[in-house]
Amino acid sequence: MKRISTIIYGLLLLALLVAPFAGAYPIFVMKLMCFALFACAFNLLLGYTGLLSFGHAAFLGGSAYVAGHAMKVWGVTPELGLLLGTATGAALGWLFGVLAIRRQGIYFSMITLALAQMLFFICLQAHFTGGEDGLQGVPRGKLFGVLDLSGDLTMYYVALVIVVLSFLLIARTIHSPFGQVLKGIKENEPRAISLGYDTHRFKLLAFVLSAALSGLAGSLKTLVLGFATLSDVHWSASGQVILMTLVGGLGTLSGPIVGAAVVVLLENKIGELGHLLAALTTIDWFNTLGESGTMVTGLIFVICVLAFRRGVMGEVIALFGRWRRRGEPS
Questions:
Q1: What pLDDT digit, counting tens, does each position of 49-91 carry?
Q2: Residue 134 falls in which region: left (phi positive, over 0), alpha (psi -120 to 50) or beta
Q3: 67 touches 224 (CB < 8 A)
């Protein structure tokens, strides 16, 4: 199974490396990678620690605003802007965690949602965020003062390196002793406490790490697109990342990547899919499918919940497991 996973990740990396030369739009693929990183960061908290946060949009959007403002107004280099955004995500994660981590279940989720909404209204009223207009015209600048990121191709490969390294960090964290403790807390927290672990401290560390990586995703998204808007810090972004994680497969490394791809493709390509279905079936209603993107996304989520209880990749992994056991001698 490990060898199969390595081959799949290798093929995915190869596909991303050649994507700009295969007709893929670099900006769109970079946006997809940013959301994939956001979903992987969220999955570290929910899938491996068992903490459902409704406020992760605060880390994505808050860091996006800070990084964008630093690069546009303060004139800092891209690497410093990304570091500032990541540090902002970590700081917000620590603040949210200190206030919420000792609560359980829905109480924890509601506290994170309430704190995220407070940040949303701060961003709505603050002068440096641009209010409803958003923060526009963020320059890409030069990485380390040398590498010009104004070209989409250069920016694409820089973003790919950042996302791949972040994914490797998440994978290393999950398979480390720290990650095993997090899994133990998710499965049976009282047992972890009885073994002498300070579960609140471990959960807080996981929360801060997840928030920092979410902040990196938001900062990178601002650098790529050149703007940050209220939609990044709105509660719907938190719901979106939950949807990505559940559709892809909770508690799997590859699941959030697949879930992010499904959700982002649906949001951006639903109109084109509708026109294609209309042409194939001669049903004119499909031409209006682009106007019902939220409904289609909800329908896909319902289908996944009913047909793929473990998520897309969760079911694939379970299928491989059954196939391997069937091939083993009794």
A1: 999 999 999 999 999 999 999 999 998 999 999 999 999 999 9
A2: left
A3: no
Q: Which residues contact 17 (CB under 8 A, 6 or more apart)?
A: 160
* Contact call for residues 135 and 68 (beta carbons, < 8 A): yes
User: Stretch 183-195: mean pLDDT, rounded?
Assistant: 92
Residue carrying structure tokens 């060898």: 3
pLDDT at 36 over 90: yes
H or E stretch covering 143: strand 142-143
- The distance between the two most distant Cα atoms of the chain, rounded to a whole number of Å, is 69
Q: How far is CA 26 from the centre of its chain?
A: 18
CA dist., res. 56 & res. 68, Å (int): 18
Tokens of 60: 């994505």
Tokens of 95: 């603040």
Dihedral over alpha carbons 198, 204, 207, 213 (to 10 degrees): -100
**Could you read off the pLDDT of 287-308 as tens digits, one per residue?**
666 556 667 777 777 777 777 7
Predicted pLDDT at 199:
92
- CA 294 to CA 139: how far, in whole Å? 32
Q: Identify residue 113 by its one-letter amino acid code.
A: L
Measure the CA–CA gap between 295 and 218, rounded to whole angstroms.
Answer: 26
Residue whose structure tokens are 């769109």: 28
Q: Tokens 């200190």 sit at which residue?
A: 98
d(CA 137, CA 159): 19
Can you tell me whether residue 139 is helix, strand or coil? Answer: coil
d(CA 182, CA 168): 18
Which tokens in the block code for residue 303? 């289908």
